[in-house]
Design goal:
By secondary structure, the protein is of the alpha+beta class. It is built from ten helices and 14 strands. It has four domains: about 160 residues, 2-Layer Sandwich (Heat Shock Protein 90), CATH 3.30.565; about 60 residues, no CATH class; about 70 residues, no CATH class; about 35 residues. The strands form three sheets. It has a seven-stranded antiparallel sheet with strand order 1-6-5-4-7-3-2. It is elongated and about 115 Å long.
Amino acid sequence: MSKFELSLASDYVPDWTIVDAIRELFQNALDQEAQTPDNTASWSYKDGTFKISNKTSTLETKSLLLGTTTKEGDDRTIGQFGEGYKIATLVLLRNAKEVTIYNYGLREVWRPRFVKSRRFGAEILTFFVDKKYPWTQVPDNDLTIEVAGITQEEWDEQIVPSNLWLQKTYGIEDITEYGEIIDQPGMVYVNGLYVCKYEPYTYGYNFKPGQLKLDRDRKLASDFDLRWLASKMWLGNPRAVELVEAGVADVSYVSNMLWGSDTQIVADAYARFRLVHGPRAVPVTTQEEADKVPAGYKAVIVSSNYKNLITRSSAYEEPEDDSIDPLDPLDKLQQWFESIEDNLTDEQQDQFNEIMEELKLQ
């Protein structure tokens, strides 16, 4: 039996829970399948034991080095940092779960546990690798990670709600090239795995790998990224204008993503505004703007997002102040003269004034 000590203390990533650990195991299994579709991922939970497998994966001992990864820069995968299953194992052991890795593809069994290190004077994560052949029959998968000691309550109340792969059904509003819009308000997932709860969202989102930039813990995403990506997902949805009108965070940047005035969402926004508020309604974003709307028109305060969509329509016309008399031709001519007067000689100015006097007498 070989022993491999990792320089990871038992209290590393103290805020991680068994939910985070199981998420990491799922992430690794799904990433392996994404890179090699025949390397099917599968899982089960029965009698307190969770098992997750890949059809053709194997673990080499060099993978125990932190930072070692085959996924860096691969947009098909979620993980990029090379820590996944090691950190997951540490967290599970710390929470009194028993972890066994059946590395059948290499005819090995890995049994991790904490060992007091004489070198570091602390308990560190250690993997014991047994190369004896332990199987009485050929397993269905080359790699299986088994976690024992997960209670039914932990499974039902913590793990399943954080993982769309384990939920039998969930409502889907729309499926886009960026992922799914789902009926779980505020919930953010990447490839079915929970990331965070974003309270401003009206809907939930299951983003595809590579769409949302995450930190190492896969828990944090920027406010801008969340709003921008959700807006992209709603752009072609017929309900987008309804959400823009309501001012929800999910469509915050829809109007910033349009290049012309002929898009369907612009036409829908203009038509909806006219239908609801009438032909002489004017979209404004502040009371100051409303005070400047000419008499005879109705100012309607809306979000800047909604206003941008409405006013971008080729059918939209700026309101005209009917109370102001238009300039007659002589007034226009006088304005033109005043704009160039400094460029004329005294003789030319006198000549123009004489002509104007003659015109006024007619």
